[in-house]
Write a structure and sequence with these properties.
By secondary structure, the chain is of the alpha+beta class. The protein is built from eight helices and 20 strands. It has a six-stranded mixed β-sheet with strand order 6-7-8-3-9-10, with helices on both faces. It has a five-stranded mixed β-barrel with strand order 11-12-13-20-14.
Length: 363
Amino acid sequence: MTTPDLELFKVGKVYDNGTPAVIDFNLTVEKGEFIAFLGPSGCGKTTTLRMIAGFESISSGDMMIKGVRMNEISPAERPTSMIFQNYALFPHMTVRRNVGYGLEVKGLPKAERDAKVDRILATLGLEDVADKRCDKLSGGQRQRIALARGLVVEPDILLLDEPLGALDANLRKAIQNELKLLQRNLGVTFVFVTHAQSEALALSDRIVVMNQGRVEQISPPRALYTRPNTPFVAQFIGRNTIFKGAVKGTENGHAIVDTPFGPLAGDANGTLANGAAASIVIPAEAIEVFARGAVGRSHNRIDAKINRFEVVGHISHLGVTLPDGRVLSLEAHVDKYPPGVFPADADITLAWAPEKATVIPAH
């Protein structure tokens, strides 16, 4: 059995004023995994990354890299590299000097240093700009230079603190694709901090969702998206509709929640005692819209009313008002809901298959 690249055992961080920033963080990362830390501002994700890098001290718990305890090891002595959001490049240096700087600090002989720099420049397609100054290059090129500088020292773990945040949307998407491919080809463990859900869902093997210093859930992207464990994750990830109620029992293998809209069924996720408070979580894409009375009994159903219908390009956008006054925004391909299929104020029924809904404990 191989030793994991990274292990955190009940790691905590408390600032000098007594404010807890990270609480009982547990995580095991295998070699070659791409892990994303995701959560709102102030949730502790960047603090955790900085503890792994050694830029923040650990108040409690243990942090191991390849089985070696790292709590008191200096950043320079850890087998990690960190890429910051602003890249922290030296503007007066050439690309080649920037990339080789870490090797220079480590005292590698020039011939060995040059060979390593040449290899990583070729890997990232930077040979043509190797002798240009960094301040003369585009955002995408500077991002690649930062990656090259982090990877040339051959770290066991590459730490990335929102490295795509400064890029425009189109370039960000292109770099995402390159980053995923590069990580797969090199087999280096990546730990990536982001506040962008789409980025975490697209890039990572597993996502760590944090909230107020605590880990809410650690799951692969699809499991996280389709099977949230907690009310926070259900509200934070994707576009979910959530109905609160009490557990009524089970039927046909599904948990039943008694709600103000009647009993609704979904797949249980967590311990659900009869009578206990629970929520049923439905992803927006699981909800289908039917003319009132046109849906069978095998689905969950709630009567509603159309308040808006418009087509933008090939996507139909529907605004739906629920009986409790909540407004949902749904969308689908125009072939499914063609123009005019639902006039304004039309009475409709929303329906979804029980297996596409998740029932979670309320707390």
